[in-house]
Amino acid sequence: MSPGFLEQGHGYVQGVGGLRLHYRTWEVPNPRAAIIIVHGLGEHSGRYDEFAAAMAAYGFSSYALDLRGHGSSEGRRGHVPRFEILLQELDRFRREVQGLVDPGCPLVLVGHSLGGLVALRYLEEYDAPFRAAVIISPWLGTAMPVPRWKTAVAAVASRFLPALPFSTRLRGRDLSHDQVIVDAYDSDPLVHDTITPRLFTEVSNAMDLVVQRAERLRVPLLFLLAGDDRVVDTGRSLAFARSLAAHAVTVRVYPGRYHEVLNEVDRHAVRVELRDWLAKHLR
Q: Which residues does 217 contact at the CB level (< 8 Å), separation at least 6?
């Protein structure tokens, strides 16, 4: 498909409490499916421009929301009062996307890192019409175990100082072997390295719930995991994926690759695998 057929745009959807949430679109005529992207902690929808353009070349339209407190959306950076709010706002965005595409257009959910956790919890709690989901390096556990004393301090702070900002200390060199990606991440004014005690405890609770309610996952799932992830615990994600009773679960681990497999040096091959898997499950 010629790049001229790709139409890019943006818009806004109202979040919980009236927050103005920004989103980006990459649309093609008569798409094979509409991909809804949920990004990771500290990043934003604009970092998926290259991926969305590649999906457009395969005939897919893409739509990516800036989560509250991220990118060009309103909200305190790296903070959410309750994890369920992220699910509610994803559902509002899903309805927005359905209004932008033809009624018969299949929907695909793609979640990366924090977005992977959000996507899984969403699929467990909402009876939404997604035909398939791609879960990339989901945040089901940290790469380095969090000491108990830090967890205890976070629990206290979550109650009394819930929005106190802390640094995640995440840097571009932890995400990809591609120096262009690393430099772009570190210099991106819309990227932040903030997390609050409340978001930390809410994510921890969501990690437990995603395992407890795994039997609710019914759509075909593709897990794309980094073999040398310095951010999340690939072993835990792998164990979770293999434990699922869903009728169609595919797991792919990329040896030696860092957290953002969609931005790694061999990302073209990853996209081809993703495309072929979607083609199979959208027939």
A: 120, 123, 124, 244, 246
